[in-house]
Specification:
239 residues; Porin; eight-stranded antiparallel barrel
């Protein structure tokens, strides 16, 4: 799931600083995209958005792990769809031989999907504020394998024998509020705040070693409610 944190005065200042900084970065390129007319905002058609983190240190400025699409039915109403996919894999080998040799590997993956709607308001020529809501669903899986002194243990549904990174399904409902600033016609930078709840249901996991298998019997479930903000800006454009 995307990272979230509590919204407060410091967060608002932080997000606004990022928005202003990103706008300043983009302004020199506005002339390259300039077109005739003053209608910067889309009144129909498909708009694609990706995460934009201009202050990210050592990471990707533009991330496609989460892709957001909008279809504008008109200038004031849009259907929104979100897709996310993340995977990771780690391996270890102590490089020794014989009974001292130890190797391990683990992998996790998560897929997310959301569907909702947005109501856009007049704002200004370049600024488009909106409110909306969406439903979200995500599914995560994990597995691992460890070999010590020639004995192999496998784990299905988690990344270690304690149940870390356990496979789970999460369902959520969010109310959203945000604004898009069009730096050029049909090219925008945006920021969004969410308030909602999510229900996370974890599944069983099985540890197998030496011909024996043990499956966890508990299936933890937890619900979170609160204010959330995306720790990134949105960069989007209309096709």
């Amino acid at each position: 799931m995307p990272k979230t944190f509590r919204v407060g005065d410091h967060l608002i200042v932080y997000v606004m600083k990022k928005l202003i900084f990103a706008i300043l970065i983009m302004m020199p390129f506005v002339g390259l995209f300039a077109q005739e007319g003053s209608d910067y905002k889309p009144d129909g058609g498909f708009v694609l958005g990706v995460n934009f983190t201009p202050l990210e240190v050592g990471g990707n400025v533009i991330s496609i792990d989460n892709i957001n699409g909008r279809y504008f039915l008109n200038s004031g109403l849009a259907v929104r769809v979100g897709l996310g996919l993340s995977t990771s894999k780690d391996s270890y080998d102590n490089g020794l031989e014989g009974n001292a040799n130890e190797t391990s590997s683990k992998s996790t993956s998560e897929f997310s999907f959301s569907l909702g709607a947005e109501k856009h308001f007049a704002g200004t020529e370049r600024l488009s504020p909106y409110i909306g809501a969406d439903l979200g669903l995500s599914m995560a899986s994990a597995k691992a394998e460890t070999t010590i002194a020639g004995v192999t243990s496998t784990i299905e549904g988690a990344s270690d024998a304690t149940g870390a990174d356990r496979k789970h399904t999460t369902f959520g409902l969010n109310l959203v509020a945000g604004a898009d600033f069009y730096v050029a016609k049909h090219l925008y930078l945006g920021v969004e705040i969410k308030y909602g709840f999510a229900v996370k249901s974890e599944g069983e996991y099985t540890v197998s070693s030496g011909g024996l298998s043990v499956t966890s019997k508990d299936k933890p479930k937890n619900t979170t409610i609160g204010q959330m903000a995306q720790p990134s800006l949105k960069l989007g454009f209309k096709f």
